[in-house]
Amino acid sequence: MITSEQREQLRGWFAGRLPDDLFEELADLTIDREEITVIGRIPGPRSAEGASPAEREAAVEGRIQEFRERTREDRITVARDAEHRFGRKVSWGVECDGRRALFTHVAAPVMTRLRQPERQVLDTLIAGGVARSRSEALAWCVRLVQRHTDDWLTELRESLEHVQRVRAQGPDGEPREDGPVADGE
């Protein structure tokens, strides 16, 4: 579990390490045990007056692809530094004209033991064309839960951060200012 302070330090490191002209702004930075995902905002393309939605979408796609190719070396350099420093892979993406595109990302395997009723749920999603495999169906379920329980998950994460702070104050954490407590106190 990553604390808010660790997340802020990581965001600060990337804000200081990224070349000034790479993004308009650092839009989002997400971290878990395996991966750091860096999303930057880039300017949208200039389109002709009265451009159709299809033309506008194609222009945004072209801008994203151009950015990806042009900045590859800079992003690789920053990623190497971050991977060495933080011990996690770095993934990249952009926001352009309200569209978010990921260039790279880690697909981490998850070990799980599902009983038959849970497997049947996944198989139903496959049969219904929602997913092509059980792992894809499981990922779909996780995204669905995430979408509908975001407030609850946020509260849980905050509670876990509190637990980490309390644990750090325990006997195996940092030394207390008033010294150790004697036996029997």
Automatic annotation (TrEMBL):
Superkingdom of the organism of origin: Bacteria
Region (Disordered) residue spans: 164-185
UniProt protein name: Smu12A
Organism: Streptomyces griseoloalbus
